[in-house]
Amino acid sequence: MNDLIPPLVSEGQILAEVNGCLGLITLNRPQALNALSLGMVRDMTTLLLHWASRPEIQAVAVLGAGREGKAPAFCAGGDIRFFHQAAHAGDSALGDFFTEEYRLNHLIHAYPKPYIALMDGIVMGGGMGISQGAKLRVLSERSKLAMPETAIGLFPDVGGGYFLAQCPGHVGEWLALTGQTIAAGDAIEWGLGDVFVPGAQWADLVAALKSSPQPSAEHVVATVMERADLAPASDPKAAAERIDRHFGEASLDRIMASLAAAGDDWSHQTLELLQHRSPTMMAVTLELVRRGRRLSLADDLRLERDLVHHCFHLRGGADRSETVEGIRALAVDKDHAPRWRPASVAEVDAAEVAAFFISPWAPQAHPLRDLK
């Protein structure tokens, strides 16, 4: 059995176990809401590649470690403090993180065996990246899904340009620009989740996956499905109509103008939220999602790798980066007062936005050139 679990490097931040035909991966950084470190990305990749080659493993499940007495978190994203430190230090590990994370995202989408994401609690950013490619995405009433990257002057990466673009209507633009958190019912309706298991059943589900006999992939899936129920009621169609009315507009300034003209509370609150985001990175984000509708996952991830390189380098390094400034305001100084440049949508330079979409690499030198 030991040869089914290869050596890991993240010093306990990833836990691996095997129960019958099932390989289980536990994200074990609960005090950081299981945010992904480079070591965790490497360990998940190592495990998935190893288990793909082993006939004894027929399915994989991934879950987040819990915190005693606190709400659960599947994965709250990437380690943004590391991004800030690495950007200022010129640390090449920053580029390695995004290259290897995006490779992991691609691996999960293409995984040859059932991969089950147990998305209990917070599922944001990088947590969406390691769950949206799953064959079975399992949610509870505690699930909180979001791609909140624009709040830190980034864009919805980890394949977000691809999977948000698959949402119906213009829901993808709304989720990408606002970073709005959604619950299980809306997530399932909009194609970002598959199955609802009530929170009261969750401990029993995890115990069964870890300890009950799991002789086949079909049995693993049945272990989940026998606990499935209807998600709590919501009205996603009414929400989608409102979203489409505004976020279907042709440009960022027209989206803002549409919200400003509407006069209802939802539009006012949404506009106020957008006014706190980086204007430049909202423009980049809108272009990404709209391009994403025409891209394969591999091409989207290559484009995102270009974009994230520019996020840290295009405007003259860390001191000019909207992303570094956004992380500073949210997680370092915590003054929640980012100084965006420019400060308004009206001042956004179309040429600067276009520059984000020019790859810094020739096609044959791209770090993700081999993704299919």
Automatic annotation (TrEMBL):
It comes from the Bacteria. One of its GO terms (biological process) is L-valine catabolic process. GO terms for molecular function: 3-hydroxyisobutyryl-CoA hydrolase activity. Residues 23-357 form the Enoyl-CoA hydratase/isomerase domain. Keywords: Hydrolase. Pfam families: ECH_2 (PF16113). NCBIfam families: PRK05617.1. This is 3-hydroxyisobutyryl-CoA hydrolase. It comes from Roseateles puraquae.
